[in-house]
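User: I'm curious whether this sequence folds into something compact or stays loose and floppy. Could you predict its structure so I can see for myself?
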Amino acid sequence: MKKNVILMALACGLILSSCASKKDLENCQTENKSLTENLQAAREDLAAKNARIGALEEQNRGMQQLLKNAEDKYAKLQESLDKSLTNASQNNVSIEKLVDQINESNQYIRHLVEVKSKSDSLNMVLTNNLTRSLSKEELKEVDVQVLKGVVYISLADNMLYKSGSYEINSRAAETLSKIAKIIKDYKDYDVLIEGNTDNVPISKPNIRNNWDLSALRASSVVQALQNDYGVDPKRLTAGGRGEYNPVAGNDTEVGKQRNRRTQIIITPKLDEFMELIGQAPDGE
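Assistant: Here's the prediction. I'll summarize afterward.
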């Protein structure tokens, strides 16, 4: 009898110990899952900040190059003036005319720098507004960059279109509406929609090749921006580049997925910059 009591006590102890260990394990698993989620969120936040830093660095390099070009031109004109002052008795160069030319060039350079600075500032505000409007989930499929004064919004094809089609996917509506709002807020920009594919041939009766597919996809986005979200069609251009503008190799599935993309390219109106170029003073 005493032996049975002892055995029962030992059994109860083992059961209680097992329950406690299981509960501790579940608590550890819950805590580990929470820590993993926090780590992933931190990595995503770090990636977004790194992308923004990269864009700022790119803009800064562009401005530094512009200023260097201006300084080089000024130095050449100043050198010409110095030579004219030294050799005034041996040549017929009009020093007064050269001084006026230098002043005119300096005024043009200052104006050009001001326009470039204003454009860069607007690009950064536009990019920040767009990035803030997109959710974390959307930012996984939408890449926003500023390169050489141009804003590039790259959208994954599996988010935008039905598989193997150029029809807009219903789940892309919210993202396109946010992009359209930014486009409408910045009326002094033109918008080019550019379709890109991988190198896998398309086999659809109504689509001849990847050129067709990329152009049709770009056209679908243009018409959605116009018809569904009210973007002025005069500002929109649709173009397809097929498989000939890859950003990665097509020898892996990841590379093919990166190449299958549609880019919304937002640029300052080119006619304004061409007019500025036409106003450049004669360097002779």
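Summary: The two ends are 119 Å apart (CA to CA). The mean pLDDT is 77.
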